[in-house]
């Protein structure tokens, strides 16, 4: 779908800032905005970015994605068309200062190698090295990468998928395009973040299964897709790699359970969930960030170690 002339003009006014070496552009009010670099915030001002401009940008972006942005639909989450810039916006009707709030996340163009992540003590004690981790990908193991906010989960996954055999057909399903494959035979499916989207994760995954994939990569696991993720991993599909927000391997499993229970009509007892998860998943890799260092804290063999790890908690 082509970008409308109006949306293209709006994007063009933001583009000079988005193309800087930054992590994020943040608007808390009209005119003033922050450029985020690491943990530093630079406050700038541009008279072009008045309330009308910011509202128009979000409304036009929502229209392009077949979404809404208004009093009834006050949250917008999607990417700017044909880019990897992720937009998260709140309508003035749901902010205390009655001002629109917009965060535009700018992904790094730098591609990390796996050795940019330090092997943690648990990995060293288990004798796990980079070669072992990369071989899990080549062998088609189902891998869940767990970590907190800004821990580097997506960068880590992008270092892993370099090891997917180049001849394999891969289908990705994400709500924001973040995975970068070298495989020529690939299809990248984008799902709307809003609940009112006409194309849901269920639609996307059902379509993906009919597209003869050798691997399906389901980006980030959340409440909308966890049950689908579990079903997919338990129906003979190997080589899956996904990310999840959690601060430990045990919390990763607990988050899976919470996501399933939060999804209406998907209540399940913990014992059954554990059996289901262990049957479909092979490894959880825990990523943490300490200071400026990103660490592979643990590589947990789900089938051998998860029950023991849960019993220790």
Automatic annotation (TrEMBL):
InterPro entries for the chain: P-loop_NTPase (IPR027417), T2SS/T4SS_dom (IPR001482), T4SS_GSP_E_ATPase (IPR050921)
Record-linked CDD domains: VirB11-like_ATPase (cd01130)
Database matches in SUPFAM superfamilies: P-loop containing nucleoside triphosphate hydrolases
Family: Belongs to the GSP E family.
One term of GO molecular function: ATP hydrolysis activity
Protein name: Type IV secretion system protein VirB11
Source organism (scientific name): Helicobacter cetorum (strain ATCC BAA-540 / CCUG 52418 / MIT 99-5656)
Domain Bacterial type II secretion system protein E: 86-254
One Pfam entry name: T2SSE
